[in-house]
């Protein structure tokens, strides 16, 4: 009776799989295993996954926080651009790490890394290094474009905020002169009390500076 896939018992299949595993043609040396692991790794330089399973999610979150602390995004669009910056930077760091791993293959088992070993490594890994270089250039261009977009967006937003704050201060001064109370949110203003107070102090300092300058000009003319 022939043993078929349907009739073969589970223990029998397990034993055959074990025997086959003993004849595996996979890499045996440390260098070979390291090379195999690099070949099998999805480098994550494209696609939707940013943090690879082998990477530290907490380290990525700290990395993202550093960009938020630098740019202080306001609104969904700015937050999206800041995250895109952090992601591109994170992947650029991965490119550098992968390049280091590739170049270190020649040094496995040899404590001395000389110029010939590095040259041999470069030659053997030229295709992989060229691929990483291509991704590095693409990510660098993406980073630069995103920085430009974010800065333009924030510049426009800050100019609009300044304009709206000046309008609000004019309204507040007008209402205060009549002794009435005023709620900025009633007219659609969304500034915090701290923002309004800061803007008022800035305007007062500007007025004082203008008055002092005019006084000096009058004194010089007299």
How does this structure look, described?
By secondary structure, the chain is mainly alpha-helical. It has a domain of 109 residues. Helix content is 72%, strand content 0%. The chain contains seven helices and no strands. It is elongated, with a radius of gyration of 32 Å.
Run of helices and strands = HHHHHHH
- Mean pLDDT rating: 78
Percent of residues in beta strands? Answer: under 5%
Unreliable stretches: 1-8, 34-41
In summary, what is this structure?
This protein has 222 residues and is an all-alpha fold. It has a domain of 109 residues. The protein has seven helices and no strands.
List keywords for this structure.
222 residues; mainly alpha; 7 helices; 72% helix; 0% strand; disordered N terminus
What topology does this entry show?
Blueprint (H helix, E strand, L loop, with lengths): L9 H13 L7 H11 L16 H15 L3 H30 L10 H10 L1 H52 L15 H29 L1
